[in-house]
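Handoff note, outgoing to incoming analyst
You'll be picking up this chain. Sequence as last confirmed:
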Amino acid sequence: MANGDRQRRRSHPSSVHSLSFGRQSSEEVLSLIGGPGFSRLVFCNDPHCLQASILKYAGNHVSSTKYNIATFLPKSLFEQFRRVANVYFLLCALLSFTPLSPYSALSNVLPLVVVIGVTMGKEILEDWRRQMQDIEVNNRLVKVHRGGGVFDNIKWKDLKVGAVVKVDKDEYFPADLILLSSSYDEAICYVETMNLDGETNLKMKQALDVTSKLQEDLDFNDFKAVIRCEDPNANLYSFVGSLEFENEQHHPLGPQQLLLRDSKLRNTDYIYGVVIFAGQDTKVVQNSTAPPSKRSKIERRTDKLVYLLFAGLVLISFIGSVFFGLWTSDDITEDGSMTRWYLRPDNTEIYYNPRKASIAAILHFLTALMLYSYFIPISLYVSIEIVKVLQSIFINQDLNMYYEEGDKPARARTSNLNEELGQVETILSDKTGTLTCNSMEFIKCSIAGTAYGIGVTEVERALTRRKRLPDEEVHGDDTSDNAHKASVKGFNFFDERIMNGEWINQPHRDVIQSFLRLMAVCHTAIPEVAEDRREVTYEAESPDEAAFVVAARELGFEFFDRTQGSVSIRELDLVSGKRVERNYKLLNVLEFSSSRKRMSVIVRDEDDGKLLLLSKGADSVMFGRLSEDGREFEARTKEHVGEYADEGLRTMVLAYRELGEDEYREFDEAFRAAKNIVSADRDEMVEEVEDRIEKNLILLGATAVEDKLQNGVPDCIDKLAQAGIKLWVLTGDKMETAINIGYACSLLRQGMKQIIISSETPERVALLKAGDDLAVSAAAKANVVDQINRGKTLIKESRESSDAVALVIDGTSLAFALEDDVKDAFFELAIGCASVICCRSSPKQKALVTRLVKIRTGGTTLAIGDGANDVGMLQEADIGIGISGLEGMQAVMSSDIAIAQFRFLERLLLVHGHWCYRRISSMICYFFYKNIVFGFTLFYFEAYTSFSGEAAYNDWYLALYNVFFTSLPVIALGVFDQDVSAVLCLRFPLLYQEGIHNLLFSWKRILGWAFNGTVSATCIFFFCIRAVEAQAFRKGGEVVGYEILGATMYTCVVWVVNCQIALSISYFTYIQHLFIWGGIVLWYVFVLAYGYLDPYISTTAYMVFVEACAPALSFWLVTLFAVISSLVPYFTYSAIQIRFFPLYHQMIHWVRNDGQANDPEFCRLVKQRSLQPTTVGYSARFEASSKRLDKKPEQATTNIE
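Most recent structure output, in case you need it:
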């Protein structure tokens, strides 16, 4: 407890953070308790009492599994038979037990059982993995009060509502708790909610005063209380309840006392809390909605193909039944004579009775439906699932998408969308943490009108190219930057003039001292001193604030301690020239808000007793608060701030002033009075008081921090643009920052026209001041509509001149643009632009924009983000990509695929996406081809035999065709085939356009494969039937029977479909050779072994190969010529198509095979085949600049306001 006592003595001041935002008046809270939705009753420290047992609240066991022992079979079977194809095969399996069946029941049921069993096995494996994760979480340990002031460890799953728990530092909260006390005297604690909302900054919670004294284990020996609160709900940011403790007095509870499950205790030794929601009732579980079911466009088209084949199956069954009925009715004429007397129609069953021909035709129709079931590939879906799982494994194991620094590989969290990665038309991307690192670095500053810091940002490099400055100016700075790049996180600043204490030699050293002191004092960061006291680290509410404190430390002003009412720093004394410790008494914190855009602290220097107001904020509000005497450096500082903003840096202006005692006393009284007011306009009154004192400031300077672009982002965007993919940026940042990042990424470029739709118009500002909300809304909407219409006009003009146009819109305007009566016009404008940047976007707006693009374009959309505010966007898009960066795991857990860096998107789409799209497309086309070949040979034989319902092949030939003899080669095609290598995929991004325009799975290509299958079946059947029907097949002169004809045709089919896939494959591996030729060998081994079985088992296959087929030369000759004749049409078509109408990948084959893959001229010729021009990215910028080489560069910006 010594450490806890030390922390209590050094407790943090409640004034550091205003806790009032989470408090409600007692009347407001208590008026809700007991009403609808507020009926929960919790008996603290007595979870097993009789009253608690009657309530039967949920336990703390959680489960994310899809099935359990009781529900697995019915649920899984339901999932399998939601597919129409499986229902059809089930009906065929049931009918196979009737006399209608053309084959044995076992040969029909076994393949269905195998296919369904494999799929259900996959479901079991996935659910078992989820079960293992649940077991790990449920078996975590937590300390629970057992009585007598003793806390023992129990498993999370055994925790009950009402139990008092003790959670230590860096542990997760096991359930939703009400904070009772902590290791700090003021009962505050710091919580990290990264797992809930993605935010890395710490949030402070504070217990009620009445329970804050319960700071030892023994204090809970006699603790009893009752909590009445709201019922379980999904709202993470609100809570209403009351605590009845000591003399039945009711104390209101709010969000400030609520600790949510899966958040982590930080910077606090321990806390005590009572469980109010457990297990499924916790807010995090209430928020965990099932991810939307996503299916790829290819899979949906495959379903349509299955329906089409089923319709064709019904049609040919109907046609066959009609002919069967007509021919059967003619077997006995009116005079009683028999046409086909050898069939004995006068003595037959109802299935062939001429006198009941209509009934016989109906029964034949059912038989035909079963017989032609082989048109539909029973193993298609399970084969696709197997292939997709294997493709996902390759994605996961790709070392080129492994982020070594963070030890984070790519993770395909679902395999359903692999091929969709090759068809992305639009990417909707977050900015902070996705395009940028979400790691702020202090890089430059302006002090006393002098600019310090010589680092070069990514944006500055882009701007230099944009302004066409000499390269030497950039490279010189870049060299210095790289040579002296700091290794301290958050600090990438170098300038010898003020580093290492050299600032004391600068002309305005007193201003520099005040500037650095302000950075070290004006904040709410928490210092953490390592045990060896050699290093101080900081926990701050934002990365910006942490960067300021680190910069102050690195420049000689080290913030190292925060006590109950003071801030301590080590700084260089100007008089003595030595480092001294100085304490500043912290009197007030004037918090930052989006409306104030600034943050201030009031401190007293304990050495000289001066009262100081230290303030930092946005330049838009700070310059207007300067005194006449404090504007000495204003002009130069404004100039520097403008330059920093152009370089994509986040700026903050720093100023201060001294306060008089009377002035401060008057402010403090007014400030406290405003804080204690309980009314709707309380916050406005507080801001009014703060506003009165934050005036007449003296300017010190400005800071500039960089939210750095991730490595490889510009190159990645350039490649994606060349591939024909459009990129929309949806960010919560302000417009200026987003535009600057756009230049750095080459989404914007010199000479590109910009349509800027902003809500900050003079008319709107005037209406806001007037306070007419309805008029403001109506005028703002009308203004947005007008700007959109003017933008559409500009788009039409730009099309005539082939100029690229960019759209930039702020969040307020976007809200109106997404309304039902405006969104069509907005989309028409946006889709005509080369790039779109939406600024100040809320999470809901991101999701709505994604939905709009997905629905209106009809193309594949991909959303990529890293934070909790991106979850809606990720789930709304066809594909959601989560960045496993610094913003927690909520985006990753809601994504379909997780990668560590934005640059990996290039390889994920252009390589794996293209390969998966091509493989799945080719695989499905081939699947239908081979089944059409097989099915039409059955149909031709049926027609040849007067639609008798007799199968051409043995029962087990039929059953094993899709399962063994032809399935493995197609799986190998789906897993291993490559039309071009990964290197060439990246070198020729336009290859990706094959997927965007769906060239490989278009209806034209599908019907082409279907026609090829029909041609192959026709060649096989008629070649076989004409070659053997009148020929002596054995030495005794016997002609073939149907069992020999069936074996011969089957052999030809196996050869043809396997040789066809060999012709289709672009990239052979030994596995493909094994499966293709092994499938043919397997057929010969099977027919040989199966023929040796008892005739009762092998039936028509008995010794057919050994005694009839193998000894006959004609069998081998028929096989050879049938295979050649079946493949010649495809080979001829392919030769003509490749020679005169090549696709992209075939052109690249030429380039590669000719050894000219590195020849710029050949690459340019291939690029000219692009179906759409590249309008953004470095390549487009270079081409645009080349056209303007002899012209004066000008930026054409259309600022529509």
